[in-house]
Amino acid sequence: MKIKQIMEKAVFVSPEATKKELLKIAKKHPHVELFIVVDKNKKFLGDIHENDLFYMILPNEMYEDIGVELAFDLEKKFFATTAKEIMRKHDISCYEDEDIIEVALKLAREEINEMPVLNKEDKVVGMINQGALLRYIKLK
Predict the structure, then answer these.
(1) Local structure of 80: helix, strand or coil
(2) 34-38 and 12-13 beta bridge pairing
(3) 3-136: what fold?
């Protein structure tokens, strides 16, 4: 079975999307955990997990109130103002014509839960996650 048969629809965001715009998108798609950051040609730039988005939307004034030293990565999320500043940049993706077992192995090898699905033109056409693969992998 090929990934294109089971991939989920991707929720795209612009790299310039603001906190307010990202929150609006998250509210519109309550069951989406991963937002795909793409350029105007749908080329993959990075992704934003809902966990990262949570820290971004907290008011910056709370930084002093928390009274905790934040790790660099958490501080980056906390003070981010656009999708580009908070997105995770990586080149881990799969292609829609890959076999699901190949993609499952890639997820396990990279120790990630989800990734974008690209077409032959390297444009994002969907996303795949461990849960979707789990439902379709056939054991021998």
Answers:
(1) coil
(2) parallel
(3) CBS-domain (3.10.580)
